[in-house]
Each structure stands twice: as C-alpha cells, then as structure tokens.
Amino acid sequence: MRLIVGLGNPGKLYDKTRHNIGFEVIDRLSESLKIPLDQAKLKGIYGMGFVNGEKLILLKPLTYMNLSGESIRAVMDYYDIALEDLLVIYDDLDLPVGKIRLRQKGSAGGHNGMKSTIAHLGSQEFNRIRVGIDRPPAGMSVVDYVLDRFREDEQEIMDDVIKKCAEACEAWLQKPFIQVMNEYNQ
Asked: Per the record, where is site Discriminates between blocked and unblocked aminoacyl-tRNA (predicted)?
C-alpha cells in the first residue's frame, strides 16, 4: 500500500495559496486517478483506490500545516504503511517558482509542516517532492507571503507544475523513486 500526502491548510481562506500547493497536487491526482477524497477521519480527508493492482491512499491532513505529522502518522499506523511507501508534497521557499525537486530524505528546511512530519515519523528518510514558491519580496513577511495567492503570471507556471508533480507521483506508482527522481529533477 502506498500513501501520497499533500501538505496544506484546510478551508476556503487558504484555497489556492502558495502554502497549499500540496493540496492542489492531491486534488489533481484524485481527479486523474479517479480516487475521490471521500473519507474524513484520522485528522485528514483522504481517498483510497487501486492503481496497477496496488492500493493507494491520497491524503490531505486537516490539522493545519504546523501539525501535519499528526494526520500522516495516524494514517500510516492505521493502515500499516511503511516509510518507503510514503511520498509527501509541499511548498519550498528555497526553490524558484516553477521548479520541483524530488528527494528521498532531508531536513525540514524551516518548513513547519515538514518539521511536524519528521517529528511524528521519527525519521527524515522518506520520499518527498518540494515545489518552488520562491522567497517573499522585500518588506513582506514569510507568513503573509505563503498565505497569499500566486500572481497571475505565476499561476500559469504553477498549473504546469501541479500537472508535472502529479505525473511524477503517478510514475512512482510504476517505478522506483530513484528512477523518478532522475527523470523529474532535470
């Protein structure tokens, strides 16, 4: 069984914000894989389906970003999912808008959702897709920036990035993550 998690904040207020790019990728996967997000428990909303004969869970934690690890841990424990069968998608200030970076391990890099995830999993060694949102302009706080929506010119780029991230996730369901990294980290 595999688990793909998109990090974000629940509620209309946070819809389409920079910090919710993980949720947008999960929505895209839900649509393309025809796995409805129809279960609300374990501190998240998720859906289950089969892809290539293997069970897959798509999860959007509803704990708010800073507590994302609570939901991820609960789902992994409940369904007995191994660390190597987890993929987490989240926004990254250290990458330019439109850039994605796949990694098999790493630190939280200051991202509170990843700090929570790492703390609850007790490990930094799990698959992830970092989605670039760039740094805030001078004079704007990081909090205001990540909770802001993309500019119109950026949104076009992000629509392509969401599609590319979903494709990378789907590729992982067919081949080893290291191979997917080599294909999508170019």
From this structure: 9
Q: Is 145 annotated as a binding residue?
A: no
Active-site residues, by number, are 19
Q: What is the pLDDT of residues 40-82, one digit of tens each?
A: 999 999 999 999 999 999 999 999 999 999 999 999 999 999 9
- Are 21 and 162 a contacting pair, CB within 8 Å? yes
Does residue 14 have a known ligand-binding role?
Answer: yes
- Rounded distance between C-alpha atoms, residue 148 and residue 134, angstroms: 12
127 appears as a binding residue in the annotation: no
Q: At what angle do helices 21-32 and 152-172 cross, to 10 degrees?
A: 60
126's tokens = 């799990």
DSSP code per residue over 70-122: HHHHHHHHHHT--GGGEEEEEEETTS-TT-EEEESS---TT-HHHHHHHHHHT
pLDDT in tens, 118-130: 999 999 999 999 9
